[in-house]
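Hi, here's the filled form for the chain we discussed.

Project: internal
Contact: R.S.
Residues: 570
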Amino acid sequence: MIKSKQIQRPERILVVDDQEINRDALGIILEDSYDVIYAENGKEALQLIDENIDTLSLVMLDLMMPVMNGFEVLQEMSENEKHKGIPVIVLTAEKNAELKALQMGAADFITKPFEVHEVIRARVARIIELNEGRRLISAAEHDQLTMLYSKNFFFEYANRLYQYHPEMHCDAIVLNIEQFHSINALNGREFGDDVLRILGNEIRAFLAETDGIASRFEADRFDLYCCHLDDYRGLLERFQKKVDTISPKVRIHLRMGVKPWIPGVEPILMLDRAHAACNMVRGDYQNPLMIYSDDMMARELLNQQMLNDLSTAAEERQFKVFFQPKYDIQMNPPRLSSAEALIRWKHPDLGMISPGVFVPLFEGNGLISIVDNFVWHEAARQMASWRDKYGVLVPVSVNLSRSDVFDPNLVDRLVAMLDSYQIDYKAFKLEVTESAYTDNAKQLLDVIDRLRRLGFQIEMDDFGSGYSSLNMLSAMPVDVLKMDMKFIRNIESNETDLRLVKLILDIARYLNVPVVAEGVETEGQLAILRDAGCALVQGYYFSRPLPAEEFEHLIEREMGIDRTEKDAIN
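And the returned structure, exactly as it came back:
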């Protein structure tokens, strides 16, 4: 237990330097505020540390000394449990020695010749304050599991390196463990800690071979700031090989993002960009390394602009809903059956933005519900408009994202919206991607079951993209299967794709559900699908996605309405 001081005494500082002039200089700077004692070499310093172990607040340590140098003192202190709680500021004129001292446990450094007196006093006061109450500096400075720097100390030292050593061209690296929460859940916290500890040891071994520092930022994220390397793939492979040795039964995947050094970019910004690069290869086990580039920077800026503009886009109706028709090809000639609502973004500055650009971004940030909600209301409004205008209710499919499912008011909102337009729930079809069924599916299935009992129809989008087993599919509540367009593209020339398409259609017949084939573009594709028993198709063979006013032409053609006569009458 730490005893409180009955008499307020000044903190004691040990100054260790073989040059008397340096000892005297630091004494003049510090003696007004601190009790200063002195040693001429490392051996004498260790003796004084032992003699003053209960009262010593700080050691100011020269690195280059006879008898025993400062590195040897740091090594001895790191191996002595009593000494570990005493912070050390190193004194050196050798720039290359500073980083090594920090890696060995030094809390700070002061460059010779000595800086402005006020600066030295401020840095000494700061280190002592951090250690106030005899808290182990390592507890504040290091992650106790991996012994890498804590986040705050890491940033501080990275900034020091950037400011005081511009000749060091340091890259930023972010290393992440894929699905670490699952590793913990399946194998236990102790196993997860072993993974972190072993990876941390390997990172420290790497840093011992080069100039750099590292930190464990979060449970499974490691940040490194180190001198430039040419082979980061080799570095990732080194770390991956190390974790591969942990258990033959558990496969652990790492991914890495790198922001190479460029002049004038501060460490925090470099690490942010390395983190962005690391996130871009999340789940990509074939290519888990990403080097941040100018193209990525442009993409990042575009993504940030789209995120910033999302709310305004919805409020100002910059989003446009297009409708792509679906045709029943078992009819002769094929008949318009329904439509899919597709979103477009007409940005005032960026022009028309493809959904392939902004939809994945909003999905990844949990904001896709704003887009979905806009599409739902526009689709319902348009369905009601066509019903009132033509006397027919054209069924429309809309997307239901996973984030929508977690809205506790989802069902009530859909019901209230459709009731306000007096639209039959069955005509408002909800598309869910196949992959969503396999990712924590229970809540999704519960919501879908409730929707189906109310009369909604559920379409499984992108069916055949590789997630489902027949056993899973038999238990899924689905009313329509939408075949992934990648199977359709080559069915005229690729026998394997043709067989897969026929297999999917056989599965659908077994389940007694219709199939919609997406991406149909040629007469040959249409003929193959019709002969194989496919019920519905959509794609450019019939029509591209159309604005609502152009889609009306298709409705009128199906109804035999002559638009010229209609316009003349109107």
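Let me know if anything looks off before we file it.
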